[in-house]
């Protein structure tokens, strides 16, 4: 990561909402598989955009951002129950877009009431968001990784297909995408149910399918990907490997996934670090022991173009 302090503000602000919105589809055409990382604030998005490593002569970077309802809720110290509406979250997205150039995928949870969702779609599209993901659950939203440990209800297929059709009908530009997130494996309804839903959602107009799983082995998403690909070779397939985090990018790419979303790691690592620092200052009586774990003030200032 570059902490030289070189003023790149013109570079960072040189993309329009239209250009940003188009760029996700362009990436999917040019790359077999892209990396997306959760960004809950402008500084986390800047870090994600500037992060680069070189491995075996391959220059690696993240291709875009994930606007997570979970991490947006955590940032506000609110429960992850769809409490934050799209207009509230859009303010944060606009601030992120002020200092970055890469595309964003938006986590819309269930999408809420259909009559409201139509307006959210238009607002997100105008703002420059490239893709909106909606999950096929109803009622009070609970985090998917809790599975059947809490009460969660899956929408019926036709009702969810109608939500997809209405969303597609109300979008303005051809490059904007709606992805359908399938919760069948989360709720232990089996592979066949997940595949049946995938077929129906694609037929209803979904531009991509996100299959979610909370099992750590990754076997069920591997099997889903194989069977889905045999029927839909050209539909983008998305995964969120939070539970099966040991699976390498290359393995998921080989399975047939086109978008890999690292959905909450920036926020989780930030909470962990802040808690450690706060407890250390209390227990040590000073901040000296943790200074080595913190970026220097000078480097922090230099990270933001135009500060120094």
TrEMBL record:
It comes from the Bacteria. Keywords: Isomerase, Metal-binding, Pyruvate. InterPro entries: ICL/PEPM, PEnolPyrv_PMutase_core, Pyrv/PenolPyrv_kinase-like_dom, Pyrv_kinase-like_dom_sf. Its EC number is 5.4.2.9. GO terms for molecular function: metal ion binding; phosphoenolpyruvate mutase activity. Belongs to the isocitrate lyase/PEP mutase superfamily. PEP mutase family. This is phosphoenolpyruvate mutase.
């Amino acid at each position: 990561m570059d902490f030289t302090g070189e003023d790149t503000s013109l570079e960072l602000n040189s993309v329009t909402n239209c250009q940003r919105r188009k760029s996700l589809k362009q990436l999917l055409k040019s790359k077999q598989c892209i990396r997306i990382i959760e960004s809950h604030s402008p500084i986390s998005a800047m870090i994600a955009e500037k992060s680069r490593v070189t491995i075996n002569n391959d220059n690696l970077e993240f291709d875009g951002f994930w606007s997570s309802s979970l991490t947006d809720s955590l940032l506000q110290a609110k429960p992850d129950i769809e409490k934050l509406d799209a207009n509230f979250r859009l303010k944060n997205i606009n601030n992120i877009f002020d200092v970055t150039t890469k595309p964003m995928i938006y986590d819309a949870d269930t999408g809420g009431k259909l009559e409201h969702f139509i307006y959210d779609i238009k607002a997100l599209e105008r703002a420059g968001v490239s893709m909106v993901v909606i999950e096929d659950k109803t009622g009070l939203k609970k985090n998917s990784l809790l599975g059947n440990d809490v009460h969660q209800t899956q929408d019926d297929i036709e009702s969810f297909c109608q939500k997809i059709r209405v969303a597609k009908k109300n979008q303005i530009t051809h490059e904007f995408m709606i992805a359908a997130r399938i919760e069948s494996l989360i709720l232990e309804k089996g592979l066949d149910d997940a595949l049946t839903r995938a077929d129906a959602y694609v037929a209803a107009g979904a531009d991509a399918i996100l299959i979610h799983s909370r099992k750590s082995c990754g076997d069920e998403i591997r099997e889903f990907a194989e069977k889905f690909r045999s029927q839909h070779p050209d539909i983008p397939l998305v995964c969120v490997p939070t539970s099966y985090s040991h699976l390498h990018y290359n393995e998921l790419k080989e399975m047939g996934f086109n978008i890999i979303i690292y959905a909450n790691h920036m926020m989780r690592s930030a909470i962990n670090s802040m808690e450690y620092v706060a407890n250390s200052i209390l227990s040590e009586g000073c901040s000296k022991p943790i200074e080595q774990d913190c970026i220097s003030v000078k480097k922090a200032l230099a990270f933001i173009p135009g500060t120094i």
